[in-house]
Amino acid sequence: MNVSHSDKQQLIVIGNGMVGHHLVEQLIERGATEAYRIIVFGEERHLAYDRVHLSEYFAGRDAESLALCASDYYAEHGIELRLSEAVTEIDRDNGEVVTDQGRYSYDRLVLATGSYPFVPPIPGNDRPNCLVYRTLEDLDAIRAAAEKATTGVVVGGGLLGLEAANALRGLNLDTAVVEFAPRLMPMQVDSEGGELLREKIESLGVQVLTERATQRIEDGEASFHRMVFQDDKVLETDLIVFSAGIRPRDELARDSGLEMGERGGVVVDDHCLTSDPTILAVGEVALWNNSIFGLVGPGYQMAKAAADTLTQGELTFRGADMSTKLKLLGVDVGSIGDAHGDRSPGARMFRYLDQIKQEYRKLVVSSDGKKLLGAMLVGDNSYYDTLMQYYSNGLELPADPASLILPSTEGAPTLGADALPETATICSCHNVTKGDVCASIDTGATDLGAVKAETKASTGCGGCAALLKSVVDHELESRGVEVDKSICEHFAYTRQELYGIVRVEGIKTFSELIKKHGRGLGCDICKPAVASILASCFNEPITDASHIPLQDTNDTFMANMQKNGTYSVVPRVPGGEITPDKLIALGEVGKKYGLYTKITGGQRIDLFGAQLHDLPDIWQELIDAGFETGHAYGKATRTVKSCVGSTWCRYGVQDSVSMALHVENRYKGLRSPHKLKFAVSGCTRECAEAQSKDVGVIATENGWNLYVCGNGGMRPRHAELFATDLDDETLIQYIDRFLMFYIRTADRLQRTSVWRENLDGGLDYLKDVIIHDSLGIADELEKQMQDVVDRYECEWANALKDPEKLKRFRSYVNDDRPDPNIIVTEERGQLRPA
Amino acid sequence: MSTATALKTETEADVSWQTLCTKNDLVAFSGVAAWIETAEGPAQVALFYLPTGPNTPGLPGHETELYAIDHHDPFSKANVIARGIVGDLKGQPVVASPIYKQHFRLKDGVCLEDESVQLRTWPVRFEGDEVWIKA
Ligand SMILES: Cc1cc2nc3c(=O)[nH]c(=O)nc-3n(C[C@H](O)[C@H](O)[C@H](O)COP(=O)(O)OP(=O)(O)OC[C@H]3O[C@@H](n4cnc5c(N)ncnc54)[C@H](O)[C@@H]3O)c2cc1C
Ligand code: HEM
Ligand code: SF4
Ligand code: SF4
């Protein structure tokens, strides 16, 4: 029994999903924690997470990165969050809710219990490996089941069904979609659009079966299940995911006698109040004006209205727009307003169909042709933003509305950011208008990031990202703010622009570049950046006279400076494979020069404590023993970590060590905007941890899966699956292109992970460029990489041949004394700085 | 491999200039370190050589070609300043510490990030091919 605090009312929120969480945020924003003691119950074990991006869980995001707030957010605001604790009963007579842990009294109660996936009452629907797609736990179950499966079927060809189908495909299952209706996405598209969608999706290798009603599910012969349809046709599959619609989780409300809709849902008014005025309902459980809103935007609007209701505010919920734009299985689908045109008497339509490019667009306009009532898009969503603005702001259409959906050759009227009224909604998830964006710029926001942080625009489903950017850019420009992206005061260019200049003009030295395109002497920002660009393009030895002053001390002396001014030495050990003789050689060098030795995280050996003047002698001995420099000092290829793979390991399916050697020997010496780490694992057990690398390769039965843009370090990011079952040659080809494209377009000191997160168009765009060669630069990228590879030379071997270069390795130019400041002491049998 | 240059002192109207090394020991647009004798005992100095010429970057009105500044980095307490990158900030020649990246003005040793910190500097000049320093 939990007694409410005397001077505060007790507010209980049931459900810690997207809308329940938004409600809490809104309450905090309104200072409601002064008036209420708030307790939130969540049945799931996870803190509220981003269900809209749930599928990214399969692409490598974890529960923590999907979470909608920091783990201490609730506690910080004095709110009690009770996860893994479901409410089982509402006792309205006593004003209490009941869980298996106890009873809790409430003064006000909010239902935010969302919905559950509807599973059609088909005999056999409770067999093992019959799953749904709604929670993180569901996805864990699907992932586990998929490991033992080769085929999967999604029952339901709506929006979520296609998303689930994509996920199954991503798990390497042979995937089919079974839809009861005659076409896919019956809610969003018409028969013509549906047909196009079907063609596109089938071309991706997903089988589409429409007008199929499953009669029963039973044991299969070749697979785990057999689905039997109305006409006795059958389909065998190992795994079934039901996605046949959602139903409100209204059982608590029903049992406690609140007013319900005929087909479920808790009836609420404009204030989100249920038939019991102490109880509110928001999100997918709430039924307003006989409608359930299955999108997060309307849910958030309800949360705002409910927060106002609880704090004596004025905001009400007056329905919401259900327009959406999505990319399903890589296919753009958009639906605005009355897309079918069946809710607007007298409406007229324009349609555009291109069966070659597989695009379909439809406009529904008012009888006088002046207003847009709805629109439907399949194949190209670039028309969406403009149409949405016409629709939601009631703008008058151009004389020839058809021009809005014709392929944009030239002269097609696009609605620029400046044409939007102040009231135009930019972000519908957080209800941010153009006026709000302008206001945040007026009060000091000077870039997109600041506007997003302040207004929250584009932090919900993200659908408005492109529009927001164009509005922000336009507004900044019109205020005369020049967005300064210069690398430093010596060059009025970005790193990417400098890279272009160097390539196009064939400039090979810093002095030529700064003379032609910069000013002054340069500095510790632009010099290493230009050095890196020159090395990426021409791969000349960095110790050449014209390059040496540009380098950070680590590159200058080809060793890593440690905190007492000594250096550490890391010879390359490709793939982590090393002979006993080489190990002995390393040991002898370490002993002779009094070096501290440690195994690195990249499967090689670091020798610490070398004084500047000893470096050449140390390296002469290492090179004589067959070593090459390891570039541990450079923004360059570091290591390719590998497991032993099929040669030794009983699980291995490919020879990961040979591939690692091949990759490391190809890319060694490649300089880039930041360091590059690689790994190759011999099977999906992933012992080499390839998914934490910039480039990760994991062996499959049929070849190699390629992962890109991961990293460890301060802010770890899982690499994303980029391509599957590649042969050796294609694998190298993709890595060549990927690395050169990164080198060409990244900012200075930007790891591939951050670069990827900032890449407009994201992973799909990257795939288009690298795999489908959408920019037509693949050959060039490969050629540039081959150039760098061909010019590889061990930098230390090069320097040792040249007395001029060795001149630099003197601690003092006029004396042989060592630096008396370097004092060492012994610990665990080795020397370390005192 | 070092060329130990004999220290030669010249006493002239209370000013002691000493030879340090030759032009050939220097690295253009970069630094080297050397030992000098000062009234307070031996010290380590970082020498930076910024030549002017048709093929080198330059500052408007930039003439001085040679700077001598303390080799000791007060932030990391290591002797490393000669191994920093030289350049200019707002037209003033500076060196960036290779460890924690503070900038020191070559002219007077003042740290631009924290003006209360100042490195010692010494007058230096070329005498033919020789580098002379006053300490
Ligand atoms: C895969 C997927 C993709 C989607 N994509 C989009 C999209 O692109 N755009 C869009 O707008 N919407 C999308 N949606 C819909 C969106 O996620 C929902 O509209 C939104 O999550 C609804 O929020 P809610 O808080 O009402 O429900 P939920 O987020 O489902 O939260 C309800 C929570 O309450 C808990 N709960 C239920 N009963 C109890 C109880 N008795 N005691 C305690 N806790 C309880 C549940 O466990 C759940 O955690 C998608 C949904 C899915 C599943
Ligand atoms: C770690 C990876 C990811 C993170 C952190 C992330 C987070 C976000 C965020 C915050 C937005 C809002 C837009 C913005 O801020 O610019 C967004 C947009 C979006 N995300 Fe994700 N996302 C990730 C990966 C993915 C993946 C793998 C998919 C596809 C399965 C995806 C689908 C989308 C889509 C379609 C949008 C809208 C983008 C637009 O219209 O411009 N995201 N994402
Ligand atoms: S990743 Fe696979 S092949 Fe490599 S060591 Fe681990 S289990 Fe063996
Ligand atoms: S984790 Fe920190 S302390 Fe350890 S090596 Fe890296 S930077 Fe140094």
UniProtKB/TrEMBL annotation, chain A:
The keyword Ribonucleoprotein does not apply. Gene3D superfamilies: 3.30.390.30, BFD-like [2Fe-2S]-binding domain (1.10.10.1100), FAD/NAD(P)-binding domain (3.50.50.60), Sulfite Reductase Hemoprotein, domain 1 (3.30.413.10). Binds 1 [4Fe-4S] cluster per subunit. Binds 1 siroheme per subunit. CDD domains: NirB_Fer2_BFD-like_2 (cd19944). Siroheme binds at C687. PANTHER family: NITRITE REDUCTASE (NADH) LARGE SUBUNIT. This is Nitrite reductase. It comes from Litchfieldella anticariensis (strain DSM 16096 / CECT 5854 / CIP 108499 / LMG 22089 / FP35) (Halomonas anticariensis).
Automatic annotation (TrEMBL), chain B:
The keyword Oxidoreductase applies. Residues 16-134 form the Rieske-like [2Fe-2S] domain. GO terms for molecular function: 2 iron, 2 sulfur cluster binding; nitrite reductase [NAD(P)H] activity. One of its GO terms (biological process) is nitrate assimilation. The keyword S-adenosyl-L-methionine does not apply. InterPro entries: NirD, Rieske-like_NirD, Rieske_2Fe-2S_sf. Keywords: Nitrate assimilation, Oxidoreductase. It comes from the Bacteria. This is Nitrite reductase. The lineage of its organism: Bacteria, Pseudomonadati, Pseudomonadota, Gammaproteobacteria, Oceanospirillales.
